[in-house]
Specification:
It contains 16 helices and 16 strands. The protein is of the alpha/beta class and 407 residues long. The strands form three sheets. The chain has an eight-stranded mixed sheet with strand order 3-4-2-1-7-8-9-10, sandwiched between helices. A six-stranded parallel sheet has the order 13-12-11-14-15-16, with helices on both faces. The chain has a two-stranded antiparallel ribbon with strand order 5-6. α8 crosses α11, α9 runs parallel beside α10 and α9 crosses α14. The relative contact order is 0.11.
Length: 407
C-alpha cells in the first residue's frame, strides 16, 4: 500500500486537478489527526471523539490518522475507510506507548497535510515540537484532559507539552471551565476555544418495536436498575459504586471492560453486593441504547480530574435518564448540573453516592424532572451538528489564516 501521506504525484501535481483543467473541483483540505490509539483497538474516550470528528466532517476534509500500535502492518484502512499510519510500539509505560520513532514520523508526515490536529494528552507526540515541524502547516490541539496520575514524570512531559500549546494556532476544549482549572491552558487562554462535544440524540431515541419490548421486559424484571458505563479503570470510581450498593435496595449493571474487572468484583464481594452488581463488558450500541431507556438512573462516580467531560452523561440525558455525578474540577458537573439534570456528590464518597441514588430511585417525580431537563439540555447544547459545525468553522479559520500568512 502506498504511503497515504504522499498525495502529490512525482510531477508535483496537486490531487484533484491537472494543469489547464480548472473545471475540476478544488481538493478538500487534508488533516492529520494524531493520538496514541484509535478505534477499533480502543473503544470510547478520545478515539470516539476523534472518530466522530473525522467521520462527521468527511464531506469537508480528507482526514488521516497517525497512531501507535503493535499491528504488523504500518498502514491500513480503518473501519471508516480512513487511511491510518501506525508506528510500532514495544508495550506501554504509564499508559503511554513506547514508540520512540513516532515524533520523527509525525515530523515527516506533517508536510504532506494542510493541518495537524494533536489530541492531548499524548506526550510522545509533543516531542515533535522539537523537530523541524513545517511552519506552514498549522497545528490545532484538541485538549481532552490533563495528565493526572503520572505527576512524578511531570518534568519530562511538561516542557514538550508547553511547546505544543505555544506552537498551536488554536486549542479546542470542551468547556471554558477547563481553562481555569488546567494550569497549562491558563498560560495560553487566548488561543482556547470552547466547543462542547455533541451526539446524535435522535439516534439514541429511535426505538423499534423489539427495542420497546426488551426495554419493558428489563424494567419489569429489574425495577430499581442503576446503570454505569465506562472503561474499568481506576479514575472511573466503579469500586465506589460497588461500595455504595451496600446500603441500597437496588442492582447496578456496568457496561465496559478494562484492567480493573477483577478488583471491582472483589470490592463488590467484600461489600456483600456481588450478587447485585453485574459487569456486562462491551455491548453493541443497540444494546446500550436499550439499557439507557430501561435503567432508572445513571451512576457516574468518577473520582479524579482525568474525567474531563463524560460523554456517557450526554447519551444518558438524551434518553431521559437522570444522572448522579461527582464534583470534579472539570466539565463533568457542568454537563449534568446539580439539581437541574443531575444530583452531584463529592468524589470518593460512597455514602453520598448511595444517598443520591436512593433519592432518585425513591422519588419518581424528581427522576422525571431531572430526566426531562437532561433531554432538553442535550437538544439545546450538545447536539452533533452544533459540535461538528463549530469544529469545521474553527478548522477553516485556522487554514485560512495559515494561507494568508504564507502569501
Amino acid at each position: 500500500m502506498k504511503h497515504f501521506g504522499m498525495l502529490r504525484s512525482e510531477a508535483g501535481i496537486e490531487p484533484g486537478g491537472y494543469p489547464g483543467m480548472s473545471t475540476l473541483p478544488p481538493r478538500r483540505p487534508r488533516i492529520l489527526h494524531v493520538f496514541k490509539t484509535a478505534a477499533p483497538e480502543y473503544i470510547g474516550g478520545v478515539p470516539a471523539i476523534m472518530e466522530t470528528i473525522v467521520s462527521g466532517l468527511g464531506d469537508r476534509f480528507d482526514s488521516g490518522l497517525l497512531i501507535s500500535s503493535n499491528r504488523p502492518a504500518s498502514e491500513f484502512e480503518s473501519h471508516l475507510g480512513l487511511p491510518v499510519t501506525t508506528v510500532r510500539h514495544f508495550g506501554h509505560f504509564m499508559s503511554m506507548p513506547v514508540a520512540p520513532t513516532l515524533p520523527l514520523r509525525l515530523g515527516l508526515m506533517a508536510s504532506h497535510y494542510d493541518m495537524v490536529v494533536l489530541h492531548m494528552p499524548f506526550p510522545l507526540a509533543d516531542l515533535a515540537s522539537y523537530m523541524d515541524f513545517p511552519r506552514s502547516v498549522p497545528l490545532v490541539v484538541q485538549w481532552h484532559s490533563a495528565i493526572v496520575r503520572q505527576t512524578m514524570f511531570k518534568p519530562l512531559y511538561s516542557r514538550p507539552m508547553r511547546r505544543s500549546l505555544q506552537k498551536a494556532r488554536a486549542i479546542v476544549v470542551s468547556g471554558l471551565p477547563l481553562v481555569e482549572t488546567a494550569k497549562p491552558l491558563r498560560q495560553v487562554r487566548d488561543k482556547c476555544h470552547a466547543i462542547p462535544f455533541g451526539i446524535d440524540a435522535d439516534a439514541w431515541n429511535r426505538l423499534s418495536a423489539a427495542d420497546l419490548s426488551e426495554i419493558e421486559r428489563i424494567r419489569n424484571a429489574h425495577p430499581r436498575l442503576i446503570l454505569a458505563v465506562g472503561r474499568l479503570v481506576s479514575y472511573k470510581g466503579f469500586h465506589i459504586l460497588a461500595e455504595a450498593l451496600r446500603t441500597l435496595d437496588a442492582e447496578a449493571w456496568i457496561v465496559g471492560d478494562g484492567p480493573l474487572d477483577g478488583l471491582i468484583r472483589k470490592r463488590a464481594a467484600e461489600a456483600g453486593t456481588g450478587g447485585r452488581l453485574r459487569l456486562l463488558g462491551r455491548v453493541p450500541a443497540a444494546t446500550l441504547k436499550r439499557l439507557y431507556h430501561a435503567a432508572r438512573v445513571l451512576a457516574f462516580p468518577s473520582i479524579t480530574d482525568a474525567e474531563t467531560f463524560g460523554l456517557v452523561q450526554v447519551e444518558a440525558m438524551a434518553c431521559g435518564l437522570p444522572v448522579v455525578n461527582t464534583r470534579l474540577n472539570t466539565m463533568v458537573p457542568h454537563v449534568a448540573r446539580h439539581e437541574l439534570e443531575a444530583l452531584t456528590v463529592p468524589p470518593h464518597d460512597a455514602g453520598a453516592l448511595a444517598a443520591a441514588l436512593h433519592q432518585i430511585l425513591d422519588q419518581p417525580a424528581l427522576a422525571q424532572r431531572l430526566g426531562r431537563a437532561g433531554a432538553a439540555r442535550v437538544a439545546s447544547t450538545y447536539g452533533l451538528d452544533r459540535f461538528l459545525d463549530a469544529t469545521a468553522a474553527l478548522y477553516e479559520r485556522v487554514l485560512r489564516e495559515a494561507r494568508d500568512m504564507a502569501t
